[in-house]
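Minutes, project check-in

Agenda point 3 was the complex the collaborators sent over. CS summarized: two entities, 614 residues total, and the question is how they sit relative to each other. Sequences were read into the notes so everyone works from the same version.
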Amino acid sequence: MNTQALFGQLLIGLINGSFYALLSLGLAVIFGLLNIINFTHGAQYMIGAFVAYFLLNKAGLGYWWALAITPFAVGAIGVVVERTMLSRLYKLDHLYGLLLTFGLALIFEGAFHHQFGSAGLPYSIPDSLQGVQNLGFMYLPNYRAWVIFASLVVCLATWFLIERTKLGAYLRAATENPTLVQAFGVNVPRMITLTYGFGVGLAALAGVFAAPIYQVSPQMGSTLIIVVFAVVVIGGMGSIMGSIVTGFGLGIIEGLTKYFYPQASSTVIFVIMAIVLLIRPQGLFGQR
Amino acid sequence: MADDRSVPVAKGQDTEWERRYERGAFVAMLVIFVAMPMVIYPRFGSQLLCFALFACAFNLLIGFGGLLSFGHAMFFGMGSYLSAHAAKVWGMPVELAILTGTATSLILGGLTGLLAIRRQGIYFAMITLALAQMVFFFCLQAPFTGGEDGIQSVPRGKVLGLLDLNEPLAMYYFVFAVFVAAFALIHRIVHSPFGQVLKAIRENEPRAISLGYRTERYKLAAFVISASLAGLAGALKAIVAQNASLTDVHWSMSGEVVLMTLLGGMGTVFGPIVGALIIISMQFYLAGLGSWVTITQGLIFVVCVLAFRRGIVGELEAWLRSRRKS
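CS then shared the predicted structure for the full assembly.
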């Protein structure tokens, strides 16, 4: 067994898992309050990467600035989308939210494709995260270690925010019964708007993390989002921690598959989804 | 009347007027399609009919079963691939090749349907999308699909050894005949007792269960029928366009059939056909504009969902009804 290659694939798996976790977490948070599956999530992740690229090349602001600015900038776009469009759909069948956000994804992707073509734009790793650590059994690039670490921190912070703070308690209460929470004087519509903005911000943050690893391209989000949908079906959208665990777990499984049976690596998550649907249709962490 | 909040669905046609309207619209459709090759290229017309059939098959599921599939490209694409492969590599006559494609989608529909009907609503949409993506990756890797190149120059041959499909008009009217037969089949299914049970499940599944119906079986049957007809549409398309490629099985194809049906009118009998004609014509005439096609499609989605949920035919029917009442 070639341990060097095995650990290499595991590392890639963990990186992918970080993105699955960040994106499915955002989807779950949005779905909890808005009852909408945000199909634009992949496009918003892509826009996040592009914003980082613009900040560097047009404004001269580097990676760390991008990390700080991008989630707010793209989150603000999300807030506008929620206020002007999504908020009109809450009383309708949930499928309309899916159709609308799918349309928005097409518009965003088409527009970026029109401007930048399909070739990827390079975004280099910031100087402070250049270099490689020799762990003895493998070489660990600093940037990749940083992405895994940072994603984990962001995921756990989100979990803490929702499950352990007063604000999160309001959020969970509004998920259960928005009318009652509103009767207690909480501004639920504003909370919904900010929640959507927050979920979108998470997607954009994932986009910034991804920019130096993958190339920045218009179609980077669309394939990823379909896999994330499968991740969400596997995990069920009932629990925040469930999304995090499922995201990282499936990333690792995908990495292992790439080592042991590479032909199946692009389909393994879908196969797992099929098995989970047979055994536990509500998902691993979902409630009926 | 179904309330405006849910996805618009087919209404029962209990009144004499509705029956008359439907008959009139059907005759009008026949006249338009018979005359169409005089106005547009028969080859393009044949493609339009294939996509119209695809949209009708999709509409059977959403309009009458209330299930939004975001993965119908897998049936269309597999039908297309197998029909092309059967005609080109196995040297089957065209009618058998089309049957092979349809049968493949029927089997695929049975397998994926068993999984997908375990969840409803949004989850159903996500599951079908994910399963279709799995089929896409399969087609990308499997040797018989030709990978990125697809299967090119599929022979058309003669139907039953008589009708030469290389003659554009003969091909058009052959596709037209298949389309009308499939359309009649859908009509028959919708108005059969089976179709009525399907409607009952869509309206209130727990009640249908309490009445003793095994709703899972009905939903699965609807899914398989819809999948097979989508496969038939793909199989025909492979013969008409003489190719099968990854485009047919890509998720954007699943999105396009949703768009056709949404634009024409979900749950209306003729809406999907109108939607297919508009969307495919738009692609044909805007083909040179590249990404603008995608952007326009996205805009149509947004406008339809925000302001135009009944679609073209749905709005037209609502207008006719209100005019009749006043």
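Noted in discussion: The first strand of chain A starts at residue 132 and ends at 134.
Follow-up: revisit at the next meeting once the mutant set is ready.
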